[in-house]
Amino acid sequence: MMINISKNIKQYLFISLIFAIFFSHDALGNSYKNIFKEEMIEVSFVSSITNFDSNKPFYIGLKFDIEDDWKIYWKHPGDSGMPPEVDLSNSVNVNYHKILWPFPTKEYEAADLLTNVYKRSIILPIQINVFDKNLSLNLRGIVNFQVCKEICIPLTAYLKLDIDPGIAINTSNYFNIMKELSNVPVSYEDLGINNLEVSLIKSNKLLIKIDSLLNFPDGNFDLFIETLNEYVKINEINIKKNSKKSIHAEILLDSELDKLSDISIIGVKGNMAFTAVTNIIDYKNNKNLYLILLLSIVGGIILNFMPCVLPVLMLKVSRLLVQHGKSNKEVRYSFISTSLGIIFSFLVLALMTIILKYLGIEVGWGTQFQQPIFIGILILVLLIFAANLFDLFEFSLPNNFSTSINNFINSRKYGIPFFEGSFATLLATPCSAPFLGTAIGFAFTAEPIIIILIFLFLGIGMSLPYLLVSCFPSIINYFPRPGNWINYLRFMLAIGLFLTALWLLTILVTLIGIKYSAIFLFIIIISLLIFNINISYRKFLVIFLSVFITFFLSSFISNNNLFKSGKNELAWEDFDQNKIKILVEQNRSIFVDITADWCITCKVNKLLVLDDKKFSDIVKKYNLVLMRGDLTKPNKDIMLYMKKFDRYGIPFNAIYSVDNSTGILLSELLTIKEIQDNLK
Description:
Number of domains: 4
Distance between the termini: 61 Å
Number of strands: 25
Shape: elongated
Strand content: 15-25%
Radius of gyration: 32 Å
Helix content: 40-55%
Mean pLDDT: 78
């Protein structure tokens, strides 16, 4: 009996040993090596530094030394082939890694198969960082790839690289890795390209227009296109224009595109490689443009009811109430003047958008509120209107300014309604409304004529209520007649304008600080005196105290963040686009909120949704990571991030998860239900 047990044990141990040898990566022929060698290729890991002394990312490289006439494939091989695949799961102390792909060479193989390949020597840069800067990095990689000539040979390399903590010194491979890194496509905006537009000519033909502020380098032009799901084969590139700062080309595709959105483009001109994610504009589809113009009108109408324009809307109601007793002609012209002021302002915004796009400056809806001068002008105008409603002085325009308006609308008495319309447009820009984001996103990626059309229809939409009154001026007879009560209304309207100025002043303090804001308010006092030299001492004292109180309150509010609710206070991290991918890989869900102090709709979303206990419960239930970006001041990185979603204004909210690693864009007006539905 003992003999049988002993034999069974020996058999079991022998079989276990065979299995261990057969399946172990570190055994015999499959042991990790510094260099993998075959007759036609050598593969190895190389490092740009000797040691690391922080948790910051650095670069290593996956180096392929390839014999003549042999090749390996790019991340999108084309019609045949397999790209290198790297598995670092057996490594120690690797926190994050990302393989970067230098642009390849296009090559036709047998039977007209178009492939994207690397030949001779190539290093694939890998950005990497460690968990613990005090522990060694033990890199263990399994690399599966194909090397091809007349035939393709699949190979597997087991590679290792060990880097110890210490003072980081560049190695002999540093410059080779950096050289290949320079061939990795970067965002086109970073290379001085100020316009990149792709439009559909036919179902399988595109027109691409690329304009740059800087001269393009010498060399051939090539292009690679992919959608979210697949690589798009290009059969022919027909150059229509190839100047120092402009390239126009027709692109003949091998097949029709299923989707015209989320197209990723990699362009190569000489030694310059750029990338862009964009939508293809289908100008041939008139229904598409008609729909955008319809959305523009609807978005413009909704803007009238957004909180940003309420101060001017209240002024218009006040003006409406005093129209009793006037002829229909006077009423009609007054409201037509307001409509013209709105439309004129939108056309000015369109022109500014076209100019800024041409200059390569990132534009967005409401970003003028990042400029202190613009904020200062709004504060001045609001305080003038408020002082006028308080009867502190009569509002009268300087003669030269009045003459300019007279020449435009042929009548001085309609200058104020025209100005109110223009002012309403400016105040509306920090508000984003349903349908508005779609129209603005389309406009900011379109040709100049389309930009003008969309902004024109936005202006028409916003002016429709005023045009309605101008068409039916007798409608004012249904409003209450003026009486003593209107003085109380004027007082309430003045308070509303005063509070709006107070809010804008808190933004100004954030932008330029208390010292310069105080200087600005002193200038306001002088300006108000210029409008009425004969102001009494009592009225001057009231104006001075009002401005002083406004400054004191705005400084106090700005410094103490009184507009930020304290209830259900959640832990928000600063927005970090690079960290999002790392968190998704760690199976975390992320909620992104891009906001600004001047964004009224953002404040509404915060008050009604993000400060609600139900949102706190959602955060706890799904273990959400909360990230918040601030656009109160200009931030190019955030603007470029939002541009990937074709969103050019705030509020901006998105949800990331393992199932939605590219992010789900939420609507401008948030709801708890929408957030819950996108997390299930």
